[in-house]
Amino acid sequence: MGVRVKIRIVLKNGKSLETVALVNTGFEAPVAQLLIPVKAAEQLGLWPNLPDEAVVEIYDTAGGPTRVYKIPSWAEVSVLTEEGESRRVLSDIVISHIEVEALISDKLAEDLMLTIERPGEGLWRFRSEDKERRSEKPEYWM
Q1: If exposure means fewest CB atoms within 10 Å of the residue's CB, which of 12, 39, 61, 130 is most exposed?
Q2: DSSP string spanning 50-106?
């Protein structure tokens, strides 16, 4: 099943988007990164006119190398729960042509204080609490 959480993305320019993201510990990054599909980037106004700070990089994926567009330190990401919003974490935005859902990198998950309890059942919690939470339903951007 995996663990998916509802998130809020707030860009430097004030534009925002709420979506569901997969917590993907296999998405290893040196800093907090949120990968979003092109369709989500369009909704945020980041595609096709990328900010000047954007760089093209090649990321290794399970399907092989792929080209992505990274915008360093461009957004604050938070987790939304029934109780409210978590703290916001500064994150790179990575735009992908092949992914259809948002992916939270290992470092972003750590900075958001997410702990995966039972991935097969989709259970998670914040590191600072004991309450186990259920995974959200996937949101696909196609």
Answers
A1: 130
A2: --TT-EEEEEEETTEEEEEEEEEEEEEEEEEETTEE---EEEEEEEESS--SEEE-H
Check: CB of residue 33 under 8 Å from CB of residue 92: yes
Q: In terms of Cα–Cα distance, which of 20, 8, 33 is closest to 92?
A: 33
Query: In the chain, what are the domains?
Result: 4-134 (2.40.70.10)
The residue among 101, 62, 76, 66 whose CA lies nearest residue 11 is 76
Q: Residue 46 belongs to what H/E stretch? A: none
Compute the distance between CA of residue 95 and CA of residue 72 in angstroms, rounded to an integer.
11
Residue with tokens 């290794």: 60
pLDDT in tens, 44-73: 999 999 999 999 999 998 889 999 999 999
Whether the link from the prior residue into 48 is cis, omega within 30° of 0, is: yes
